[in-house]
Amino acid sequence: MTTLPRPSWKSAMTARQRFHNQMHYLPVDRCFNMEFGYWNENFTEWDIFVKHGITNNAQADVFFGFDRIGCFYGKTWIHPCFEQQVIEQNESKKVIRNCDGLLAEVPVDGHDSIPHFLKSSITTPDDWKRVKEERMRRDDPARKVDIQKVINDNPTDRSWPLGVWCGSMIGKIRDMLTFEGLAYAVYDYPDMVEDMVETCCLIVEDVLDQVLGKVDFDYACGWEDICFKNGPIVSLDFFEKVVVPRYERIGRKLHAHGIDIWYTDCDGDVRPLLKGFLSAGINCLFPYEVNSCVHPGRLLDEYGKELRIMGGVDKMALGAGPEAIREYLNSLDAYVQRGGYIPFCDHRCPPNVKPADYLYYLDLKEKMWGMS
User: Fold this and answer.
1) Which domains does the chain have, with CATH numbers?
2) Contact at 8 Å (CB) between 264 and 223?
3) Mean predicted lDDT score pLDDT of the chain
């Protein structure tokens, strides 16, 4: 029977050493042990969380004894955010203005759901000009990094890996414009969209210029949710001509400071974007949704040591019970053993997964990939 809270896996290396080696296809004492997190409902519906007072993902990481992994986040998006407001409400739904300035319809009870976006605050170049002047100022004092605090919080001799956040070149713009809004804007106002991408890149570069060479980072990361099950939501021509060159600029800065592991969080079928990602230095996929793409082994076989993947454990298998969990983890074994791959649920673990089955999954991971 699983002991809760769950003890950390036995170790002969620090988490930092392990992450570095596993991501570089070098020998490790065991697999890096982490998960992406859980839906909000899990914290109220899973008895193992309720009984132990676990209410968020940070607490869950400690509760399950996962390896520590950290990240420094500078202010790489709009600041200040739009004031969040409830515009109207009925018994089941409410219309809010969110922090990106979007009017969105969401459930009143607050359960995890993709919002129904109704209207963006930006539809024309004049709208963008106003938002850029008010909320994307490069000279905003809030964008100045307290370097000493970052160093104090993450000393050079730390035992955990530390990442540097490289923001989003087009995913957050998609958030701001909406899917449909971006699709139209790329054709109606291409110069505006490219200026939005350039502004995002400049702000990320400003943050990197403050911290690189002063803080010892182990990897870089970002967020770029621009795919769904049928591929990218932007054309490859736009992606390669407008977005990739900005990745390349960021990649040059990272590589100049020895950072050669860079993941971006992009759901959906990312395969059409891989050429651009890899050419710019984004060489790791996260959290790698299986059902909207392919088994992670397919891409790891195809790209070899050029590619890494974090995630890729089919959430559908977790929900199907022990036999399906065992079968799926067995299909990943060769890739974990080879390196360049850290297995965990391919997004936030949903509440339909039974707590007992989830504990079975964690136990089996340790049995297969922990220290014997």
Assistant:
1) 15-78+121-369 (3.20.20.210), 83-120 (no CATH)
2) yes
3) 95
pLDDT of 372 = 79
Residues 328 and 317: their CA atoms lie apart, in Å, by 7
Centre a 10 Å sphere on the Cβ of residue 14 and count the other Cβ atoms it contains.
17
What's the confidence (pLDDT) of residue 198? Answer: 98
pLDDT at 1: 55
Which helix (H) or strand (E) segment is 89 a member of?
Answer: strand 85-89
C-alpha span between 137 and 132 (Å, rounded)? 7
CA distance 14 to 336: 18
CA-nearest of 335, 334, 275, 331 to 309 is 335
CA dihedral sign, ordered 126, 129, 130, 132? positive
Share in percent of the chain as helix, strand, coil (round to 5): 45, 15, 40
What is the per-residue pLDDT for 58? Answer: 98
